[in-house]
Design a protein that fits this description.
Elements lengths: L1 H21 L4 E6 L6 H8 L4 E16 L6 H5 L13 E2 L2 E11 L1 H11 L12 E5 L7 H6 L15 E5 L12 E10 L14 E6 H7 L8 H5 E8 L4 H13 L7 E5 H35 L15 H5 L15
Parallel strand pairs: 4-8, 5-7
Antiparallel strand pairs: 1-9, 1-10, 2-4, 2-6, 2-9, 3-4, 5-8, 6-7
Helix pairs in contact: 1-9
Length: 336
Amino acid sequence: LMVGAMCLTNGIEANRMADMERDIYNLDITIDVVGEPDADIESQLRSQPDAQRSILYRSAEARLLLDESQMDDGYLARGGLEVYDSMDSYLEKGQYRLYTSLMGLAPEDFDAYCREIGADPAAFGNGKNTAIVVNEAMGSVETLIWQNKLTSGPLIKAAPGESFTGYDRLYLEQEGHSASFSFTVGAVTSTYPALQKSSFPNTLMLVVPMETYERLTMDFDPADTLRYRRTYLKTQVAEESLAAVQAEAEAIIGQHLPAEDYETWSHLDSIRESREGTRLMYLLISAAAVFLGLLGISTAFSPIPTAPPPGPGPSPACPASGLPPMGCHPCCACKR
């Protein structure tokens, strides 16, 4: 049992390591500031000699309300949202509720993404609320795609020049602040930006320049400001230089922000956390094995309970004394 559990633990750790090896970026930096990302911090972090590739973005969750005629015909023919929600909670006042990720990329990252999908960066930003729509029903979570046998294809009917309205509340029933935003489709693609961020099935992604993102989220719920103003910088670093780059990144940010306003997390931290978890599991398995072993030993050497030996047969005089046969004291036991 113990050997089997340890083998299972090793398998889990191996899978974790394999997942981390597939990651594009191995250093994540999170900065919690309400204002625009600090250009000086960004420049210093990106210009580190061993930083090979990086991307900076902010993200927010929203929803669209669409008529059935706006949904893709092929998507509806495959079952649409009903495949995942048989309780009709995807419907809101007769319209389809479509969850949407709004992603704001730093200027150089947005330009690079436009070149990747063949869009013109000049068609975005500059005061225009124009977005790239990642119109893919499968999402990017491989396990969900495989388990649900999802088919690639668009979610909605969207073409450049069309306009839509989004809402910051994910559910109509949510209480409190509510805001809406409008955007125009500038390009449509099925290619996600390399964010190393999962996009779930049946979810749209809107990718915009950072200045457009700031404008679209301007009226979002102030109580959630830190959530949609959080800045993410993901960096790819040569493994042998990762520890030094992470330490230097912390020193750079520490010159501008207090420690509670930022966090760094690297592949090395993930490995350390995974090994600590594995070590703890080994200790728990070993402790359980020792306990079961001691329990087995104590059981093996404990005396086996037996019935008491039969006493002497009843004597004719014993019944006369009014005592049961086993009640006679040895010193006055009646003899035949």
